[in-house]
Amino acid sequence: MSKASTAVNQNVSKSYKLETDKGSFDLPVYSPTNGPDVMDVTKLYGETGLFTYDPGFASTASCESKITFIDGEEGILRYRGYDIADLAANCTFMEVARLLIYGELPNKKEKETFENQITYHTMVHEQMHFFYRGFRRDAHPMAIMVGVVGALSSFYHDSLDITNPEHRELSTHRLIAKMATLAAMTYKYAVGQPFIYPRNDLSYTENFLHMCFSVPSEPYVVNPTVASAMRRIFILHADHEQNASTSTVRLAGSSGANPFACIAAGIASLWGPAHGGANEAVLTMLDEIGSKENIPEFVKKAKDKNDPFRLMGFGHRVYKNYDPRAKVMQESCHQVLKELGVNDPKLELAMELERLALEDDYFAEKKLYPNVDFYSGIILKAIGFPTSMFTVLFALARTVGWISQWREMIEDPRQRIGRPRQLYTGEGERKFVPLSKR
Ligand code: ACO
Predict the structure, then answer these.
(1) Residue minimizing CA distance to atom 37 of ligand 1
(2) Among 130, 176, 303, 317, whose CB has the most other CB atoms within 10 angstroms?
(3) What is the DSSP letter of 38?
(4) Mean confidence (pLDDT) of the chain
């Protein structure tokens, strides 16, 4: 298998001594470009017979990566070293995609070449239409996406050899291009309108809006404010280092599974309400709250240990500060609602909820701030997407990050199948009892 020579960059800065009853062992410590030092425990089991225990991976770096950096305490998010706010303000989604995949912002020529490579693959196999017809009309769009993205591997046998760099390249382009078409088809299927073919004269974002909202009977003009908001949403969601869905993609890929199957696994993981499903949950919560007078009651419920209710769109495993994506999203939200002349009382309700929660000691002490999902749902609703589509849009954007991380993993010379161990607390050995004696 071809491995990129740049993957290993471990800088051993020091080592820690671990005292065990079998003796003392040195554990090397690596210094990253940014962020906390990382202690290498790969030889721990071989040398000491000990496992580490870290459910939820709160203290575990599962891989080395050069793609995305997050400082949760300071509220920093960077793709390949560039601040997320700069990228969201200045780049197209395809520029950011190219940056995440290949490591550098493209020049004009590289940008055009990459855009051509993607647009060349925007159509899906005609047979794919029949897949959609097999789903119930009321199927959740994420259920459809898990199915149709996984099914891509049955169409593209010419790009499934993960050891071949050309195949990996082709699958990368196909996945990014076809995700927009499949996501739009999922929406069209749900609303009972005909599928709309892609238009390669439009930008990636404009084409996606065209495939979602145009109908064969009328001309459709993409609103530039809406396209810009969509572009920003895609950029903000494109990658977020080793979160649950990305780790799922890496773990699935570590066994040698093809990239279409791995991305389908990522989509399944993203579906959960604690991850990508949260912006849908924010709108449901705002509906439930109903009006400003009820906010204190819901804030009280969120603080009550015996009540399972949580403020959706608040808190994050990594950010212990304002999520930098939420800032951009709040600004976009105001712009879109103004441009579209939408007077959504949910925006006011959300802002009041944010204000009251941020003033509350519980949220301050636990460092719970609005995350990216807090405002994105309001924007997407104003653009015209049903709530069930929100996570699909997230999956579309995150495909760029998933595929970048998958490629990095495949090219890492130390890549092995991911195989965590466990702390077994079940029964010890038991004598088998035949059915007649149980
Ligand atoms: N409302 C009320 N209390 C909360 C919230 C919340 N939204 N989030 C965390 N807490 C509390 C927890 O009850 C816990 O309290 P404790 O210390 O007294 O036990 C403490 O804050 C720490 O929370 P954890 O659940 O341990 O944090 P974790 O890192 O495991 O969870 C998560 C992070 C899942 C995002 C959580 O904050 C949450 O459920 N938020 C709401 C869902 C949401 O918005 N998810 C989107 C995340 S962003 C994304 O995926 C794109």
Answers:
(1) 315
(2) 176
(3) E
(4) 93
* Residue found under tokens 């195989």: 419
What's the gap in Å between 133 CA and the centre of ligand 1? Answer: 38
Active site residues per annotation: 316, 373
Average pLDDT of 29-39? 94
Between the CA of residue 206 and those of 91, 144, 202, 339, 340, what are the distances in Å? Answer: 14, 23, 6, 17, 17
For residue range 158-175, list pLDDT tens digits in order: 999 999 999 999 999 999
Which residue of 317, 360, 380 sits with most ligand 1 atoms within 8 Å of its CB, as the best mutation to test the pocket? 317
> Which atom of ligand 1 is found nearest the CA of 318?
29
Is 1's pLDDT higher than 50?
no
Residues with CB under 6 A from ligand 1: 274-275, 278, 302, 310-317, 366, 368, 371-373
Q: How many CB atoms lie within 10 A of CB 333?
A: 24
pTM: 0.90
